[in-house]
Write a structure and sequence with these properties.
This protein is of the alpha+beta class and about 160 residues long. About 40% of the residues lie in helices and about 25% in strands. Strands 3-4-5 form a three-stranded antiparallel beta sheet, with helices on one face. A two-stranded parallel ribbon has the order 1-2.
Length: about 160
């Protein structure tokens, strides 16, 4: 059981069983797949488990890891930040930006549009505006297409 093994690994690393789990599921996964993931989490006894789309997980991860890229600090001398010139204080309180996030996995690809907002307190939040996923296009499909285009000697060399 993959989920149970992952939970055991986390427990060894943390010294205690994780209290919560979040499973990021492919955007293209249907209702049956979501039910199967929820059942697998229950069988693995993961405790409180939340299911999230991989697009939502990517957006929140991006917000956490790249908040300084999303909202650069204002230059104290000029008030400029990434092309925002001397905005009145009322407009500097809340800043928003919209980002296209693309995830190309081996078996599936997904794209999402997320809006990131920075509040007066500096905290950033993310909202998923749209997402789409497909099992028809993944890196494996791209690899296969490239191999069909490769000359015969290259196909033999590359496998």
């Amino acid at each position: 059981m993959l989920l149970r093994d992952q939970a055991s690994h986390a427990e060894r690393q943390l010294g205690a069983a994780p209290a919560r789990a979040v499973l990021a599921l492919p955007v293209a996964l249907g209702a049956d797949g979501v039910r199967a993931a929820a059942d697998a989490a229950a069988i693995a006894r993961l405790g409180e488990t939340r299911l999230a789309s991989s697009a939502a997980a990517l957006a929140y991860h991006y917000a956490e890891r790249h908040s300084t890229d999303l909202f650069p600090a204002l230059d104290a001398r000029s008030g400029d930040a990434a092309g925002v010139a001397d905005a009145p204080a009322s407009e500097q309180e809340v800043r928003e930006t919209t980002v296209l996030l693309v995830d190309v996995g081996h078996l599936a690809s997904s794209a999402a549009v997320a809006r990131f907002t920075q509040g007066v307190d500096g905290a950033a939040s993310a909202a998923l505006l749209a997402s789409h996923g497909s099992f028809a296009v993944g890196a494996g499909v791209v690899d296969d297409a490239l191999m069909r285009c490769a000359p015969a000697p290259g196909r033999r060399t590359l496998g």
